[in-house]
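Notes from the 1:1 (GR / supervisor)

We went over the backlog. Supervisor wanted to see one worked example end to end before approving the batch request, so GR pasted a single chain during the call. The sequence is below; no edits were made to it. Supervisor asked that the structure be written out right there so they could see what the output format looks like.
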Amino acid sequence: MTDTTNKIGEKLVLTRDQLPQLFKALQKSGYTLIGPTIRDHAIVNQEIDNCVDLPEGYSDQQDAAAYRLSKTDKTALFDYNVATQSFKRFLFIPRHTILRAKRKKKTFEVADNKYSPSKMAFIGVRPCELHAIYIQDRVFTAGEFIDEQYQKQRDQIFLVVVNCTKASKSCFCTSMETGPQATTGFDLALTEIAQPGKHFFVLEIGSEQARTILSGIKCKPASQSDIDAADAAVASAAAQIERTLDTTGIKELFLRNIDNVYWDKVGGRCMSCANCTLVCPTCFCSTVEDVTDLSGDNAERARRWDSCFTMDFSYIHGGSVRPSSKARYRQWITHKLAAWQDQFGSSGCVGCGRCITWCPVGIDITEEARTIRERDIKPATVTEKTEV
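Structure output shown during the call:
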């Protein structure tokens, strides 16, 4: 019989030598591993085979318009902040074929194009990214209309969170209450302890499926000293976070500052390159395109990623309703921090800091929000004199 005596919420110790066993157990259950590895001098999330593919002994430094990967003398496997892109592209895929059609004499026959999901285990999901996944769940599956492609793929995902033990200068998850530790919503959560003479993970079980995966791995219960070490490592990451974003009344703040003259300044810096939306783990703008081959006998309709920073995204008959970089940046940040709350019940920002790191000119969402607050156009009250 399978031993699944471990309980949900129980904390165990998974040694460094046992991590390959976890990976093999996931693969044996049919999961493809998607995790952090090094490519083109950066840490990216892509398919991996085993622990050898992880960025052991590497760390990253991130700041406004700055990213650098460096070799360290540590043996840690997850000693980085966030990968260059999130796990979003494996759920909300960059280009999804909606239908295919083939000419049959004078008509077209639409081919069956049902989406076939793959079982994937996301390795190294950061707590802020976990929150982002659940935000996109609300976007694609919680409303009246459910995105079939997203739902099918989401149902096949196993989430292995790795709590943060370091922070970059771009991080501000504490302001958004999304990290640096995951408390719920995962299958497994790991906190890495990599110190001279000892290397292990404090593991927390989050689902029945995780209990089954762990049934063949002999993990000992975590002692109080193990738990304290994990808590101290996470607390260290929280203490390293320098950026903050004041969310007090932020929806009302942005909605009443649509005409703030400050937008002219930030609009003059923004290049409308769309980097921020492409690396953001919650942005979901898309467009639909129809293409045919040269013969005219085969047609395809596909959904692909788009961005509210592109001119064509807001194009209607007669032109774009947001023709300037100023208007497009204002739309993005106001939707992210304000209107998103009305649509989906939460902020659209999780504080991962990617938009800060990958903006070519270093525009900082926390600084822009702070400046708008400082230059707030406060509404007149009954006690104030209003000039006519």
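Supervisor's comment: The first helix runs from residue 19 to 28.
Batch request approved.
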